[in-house]
Amino acid sequence: MTAYYGTLLFDFDSTLIRCESLDLFFKITQNNPTLSKQIEHITHLGMAGEISFAESLSQRLALLNTTPTALQHFAKTLINYITPNMPELIAWAHHYFDIWIVSGGLTPLILPVAEKLNIDKSHVKAINLQWHDQHLHADPENGFATDKITGAKQCLSLWQTPITIIGDGYTDFQLFEANIAHYFIAYCQHVERANVITQTRYRAYQPAEIKQQLELLYEI
């Protein structure tokens, strides 16, 4: 596909979907409210930039008691959590942009939603997993297990400029701060983070508002 207006990078959790996928997995499958609260707290600390992403990921995976099969089964249910009206936005954006999902989430959880949104699996950049010693471990090869900046830097040759990142988290803003993305649109429908929305004049609370921002930015 020829991208006439550059590349859109979408965050996954609390942007393309209306929840934090790994948090929801713990809540639904682990049957341990105390553990679920602990996971949510760790996620919040990481997304707010209060602990490093690598530390947040390591702590959460250490608490994860599951199998690849269970993870894949749960992943299929996430299409029910796609943000309302997001499919229409993505369908429109496909005409003007090269679309990627760039996430600190787990690749197996993202792929069914990507397929539903007609985003090729080769355009999903997130944390790949390895199954070793009866536990899931993050694969460090593509950089996303370290942090989003490290992973994104390995993808720069794949992305046509200008690049716009759309997401709710501080890690999304950091791609803009690091000059990887030229624009950052804070997506605030599901979570509004004070340390994120103060960093940009571009905010959206509905997919239609993302479309409006893009039309203004790129004069579509």
TrEMBL record:
Top-level taxon: Bacteria
Which enzyme class, named as a word?
hydrolase
What GO MF terms are annotated?
L-phosphoserine phosphatase activity; magnesium ion binding
Coiled-coil annotated spans: none
As cofactor, the record names:
Mg(2+)
Tell me yes or no: is Phosphoprotein among this UniProt entry's keywords.
no
Report one GO cellular component: cytoplasm
Q: What is the E.C. number?
A: 3.1.3.3
One of the GO BP terms on file: L-serine biosynthetic process
Keywords, ordered alphabetically: Amino-acid biosynthesis, Hydrolase, Magnesium, Metal-binding, Serine biosynthesis
Q: Which InterPro entries match?
A: HAD-like_SerB, HAD-like_sf, HAD_sf
Q: Pathway involvement?
A: Amino-acid biosynthesis; L-serine biosynthesis; L-serine from 3-phospho-D-glycerate: step 3/3
Report the catalytic activity.
O-phospho-L-serine + H2O = L-serine + phosphate; O-phospho-D-serine + H2O = D-serine + phosphate
Task: Tell me the PANTHER family matching this sequence.
Answer: PHOSPHOSERINE PHOSPHATASE
- Name of the protein in question: phosphoserine phosphatase
- Supply the source organism for this entry: Piscirickettsia salmonis
Q: What is the lineage of its organism?
A: Bacteria, Pseudomonadati, Pseudomonadota, Gammaproteobacteria, Thiotrichales
